[in-house]
Amino acid sequence: MTLSLHDTDFYSWTQQQIAFIQQGDWRHVDAEHIAEELNNMGASERRELINRLAVLLTHLLKWQWQPERQSTSWILTIEEQRRRSSRVLRHSPGLKSLLAEILDDAYGDARIKAARETKNKNPYRVMIMS
């Protein structure tokens, strides 16, 4: 099996594909790999938002369950993650339509992490109280 430039030198492949597209040389455009890379980029944005929200929710859970440990550091982390989450949504507003699913994933991760960090034996008891 012969490896393609995409597989052996990703950067050079990207530059080659840009040149083909700019020249309108559509017969040489590697549409299959370009589609794959675009899909990966979208998935990466989704993962980024899940991660940011998980950190935010973890700190909010810890804030609730460990009031004696509340600190400026936690406040700053909460603010930073809020800002970063908002930035991801501004950059990729299409993710807003997936927000319920994304929040569900992030909250599940946050409950486990907060339970671990607060020494709570049951991660399903760790919830944000309204």
How many angstroms separate the termini?
58 Å
Question: How many helix segments?
Answer: 5
Mind telling me the C-alpha Rg?
21 Å
Number of strands: 0
Q: What would the principal axes of the Cα set say about the shape? A: elongated
What fraction strand?
A: under 5%
Could you give a short account of the major beta sheet?
none
Regions with little confidence, pLDDT below 50 for 5+ residues: none
Q: Summarize the helix and strand pattern as letters.
A: HHHHH
Structural class: mainly alpha
Structural domain tally: 1
Mean pLDDT: 92
Q: Helical proportion?
A: over 70%
Describe the fold and architecture:
This protein has 130 residues and is mainly α. It has one domain (5-118). It is built from five helices and no strands. The protein has helices at residues 5-8, 10-23, 31-65, 72-91, 99-118.
Summarize the structure.
The protein has 130 residues and is an all-alpha fold. The chain has one domain.
Features:
elongated, about 130 residues
List the helices and strands and how they pair.
Elements: H1 5-8, H2 10-23, H3 31-65, H4 72-91, H5 99-118
